Amino acid sequence: MSRGLFITLEGGEGAGKSTNLVFVRQWLQREGHEVVVTREPGGTELGERVRDILLHSKQLHIAPESEMLLMFAARSEHIAKVIRPALAAGKVVLCDRFTDATYAYQGGGRGLPSERIVAIENWVQGDLRPDLTLLFDIPVEAGRERAGQRGEPDRFEREDNEFFLRVRQAYLNRAAREPARMRVIDASRSLEQVERQVTAVLEEVVRGR
Ligand code: Z5A
Known about the structure:
The chain has 8 helices and 5 strands. By secondary structure, it is an alpha/beta fold. The chain has a single domain, classed as 3-Layer(aba) Sandwich (Rossmann fold), CATH 3.40.50.300. It binds ligand Z5A. Phosphorylation of dTMP to form dTDP in both de novo and salvage pathways of dTTP synthesis.
């Protein structure tokens, strides 16, 4: 393999990304791939600090434009230090959220025009795009119910249902425009049924390469 494979996991709150990330990693390792697991915002020292600001600054009002630029600042570091080196070494990069989340949350959720996101995406990423994105889709209420069983909500989790409905729609719109890359998984099903859908996609896309 001359270049590794870049796989991202996306979805609304409580959709099961973190749960399924473990399943995807194990599937890839059984297939003989070397896997680098990472996340956004985060994945580097700078990225994790930015994540802390973005998720846990309870009193700080952050303008949507600043929020988007912070996501891309963290991403730029992540691409340079983690993602590109791993791909160049032929590894599989498995990333919990990437730029589709910016289109969904800062675009759909916060209402920033997608042309601005496109411009910064092109500048920061050059030609780097995920090879495969698994979109874990679940109705907002059901996802929030699953997520709500955890501790105190972060800055995003405190948003209302309308915000998350826009996020979900933005994700689904992107998947409809790029069906080959972005595969929608019905995450409202049982874990076993979700894993079956994920396996089918991995067999088709990863084994098929
Ligand atoms: N963000 C952004 O705004 N812009 C960007 O560009 C980027 C990110 C990159 C951090 O994300 C926040 O950053 C995110 C968007 C923003 N904010 N939000 N909301 P995160 O990924 O770290 O946090 P999260 O979205 O809150 O993830 P999450 O709520 O942990 O969701 P999840 O990982 O998809 O869910 P989970 O932890 O795997 O599962 C939730 C629970 O459901 C858990 O108890 C599971 O055991 C259970 N579960 C999972 N699957 C099932 C099934 N199939 N049946 C029953 N129960 C299940």
